Amino acid sequence: MLLRRLLFIPLLLGTCLTGAGTHAGRQSVVEWLDRYAAGEFEAVAGELSATTDFGEILEQLRRDGPGWIDAAGPDAGERRELAAATFALEAARAGAWHEWKFIQRQPRMCAPNGECTQPPSVLYWKAPPLLIEWGCERLRRRDTPLRMERWWQLAALAVAQRSEDPQFLVGDPSIGGGIGSAEIVNIQDEIKHLEHTRPRFPAEMRFVLAEGIARDRVWPDDAARVYRALEDDPDVGGEATMRLGAMQVMGRSRNASTSDALARLEKAETLTRDPYVVFLARYFKGRVQERQRRTQQAEAAYRGAVAAVPHAQSATIALASLVFRDGRRSDAQRLIRDMLTADPRPADPWRGYVHADDRFWPQLITRLREEIGK
Average of pLDDT values for 300-312? Predict the structure, then answer.
């Protein structure tokens, strides 16, 4: 017993010292902001990607961020505002797949007579969505948006959609479903980010489209109404039409026939040059035609998808499977070999379907960094 106690003492001391060293060596957010504003974007982003304590970043930003923004005087205020908000956005994206929110189901409450009720659940936001809102609140303090705020808000939308959480954007997806559906009780803590964004940029149709995408899986009728309203929009009409057709393919749109879905997917191709949208329209069309055993049409659709985004995994595998079953094994092997050896390997639009505008993140963050670096 004495030996075990003696062994435990150095172990405890080592743990304490390690913890103390980690705390002492923790990067301060003010230092990060100084480096970020000085143009060390990639270095800071890399350090954020290796971080796990996003709650500490949020706490320091709330405490020290406003002072850092004001410290350089009014002439540099707008640039520092954008730098701090963009740093918060980079931290949110780095942490989004580590943590996002927690919904606690409350224990059942039972009366002495044996009757039990289930209280509503309670929502707790983790640091990453609150980091987005910290930046958003800072920018919204100005009655007139900063010149680059629209780009920041588009980047914020990209991060939010990457999280795959519609609640952050539009509110509780279980609202009206009752206690059994995990509906939350603390609706005053809802963020509903798009309610902050759309009034500031009423002409930006990507924010309107985001309303539909957020509702796609949980409120399909509402999503379909948004998509239909945008079908003729010159900027997002192609994607809205494709997503409406995809909902019909996946059985999430009521009273929709297969012919309606195919017509919308074919129309979507004519409304855009975006390879992401064209790929998905052709890929979904191929899935429908394959189910209908129209193998020649399905093969043509999959080949069209691969032409839009060469070597993308979903359409390449679907095409290879089709030609393999048709006895063309060497063609199937070549398709798979070329897909596996492609360098760089392309992002698959189907795998990123629910992430929507996250595909624009590289261009958006580059534009924001360039503005900060001026």
Answer: 96
Number of other CB atoms surrounding residue 180 within 10 Å: 8
Buried (b) or exposed (e) across 235-266, using 16+ Cβ within 10 A?
ebbbbbbbbbbbbbbeebbeebeeeebbebbe
Per the DSSP assignment, residues forming a β-bridge with 124 are 102
Give the residue from 151, 183, 202 where a domain finishes. Answer: 202
> How does DSSP classify residue 104?
E
One-letter amino acid at 31 equals E
- Clarify whether residues 47 and 154 are in a common domain: yes
Residues 6 or more apart in contact with residue 172 via CB below 8 angstroms: 123, 183, 184, 187, 190
| Cβ 209 vs Cβ 226: under 8 Å | yes
Q: How far apart are CA 130 and CA 138, in angstroms?
A: 12
- The average pLDDT across 312-318 equals 96
CA distance 176 to 236: 30
Q: Mean pLDDT throughout 141-159?
A: 94
Cis peptide bond prior to 275, omega within 30° of 0: no
CB 14 within 8 A of CB 8: no
Q: Is residue 233 a part of any domain in this protein?
A: no
Residue scoring higher pLDDT (3 or 118): 118
Q: What is the CATH number of the domain that holds 340?
A: 1.25.40
The CA distance from 60 to 297, in Å, is 57
Mark whether 55 and 194 lie in a shared domain. yes
Q: Would you say residue 220 lies in a domain?
A: no
Helix ranges (H only) for 141-187 are 149-162, 166-170
pLDDT tens digits, 51-104:
889 999 999 999 999 999 999 888 788 999 999 999 999 999 999 998 988 877
Rounded Cα gap, residues 218 and 172, in angstroms: 10
Domain membership of residue 293 as a residue range: 282-353
Could you give the CA distance from residue 31 to residue 77 in angstroms, rounded to a whole number?
A: 17
Same domain, residue pair 32 and 139 = yes
Residue 149 lies in a domain: yes
DSSP assignment letter at 163: T
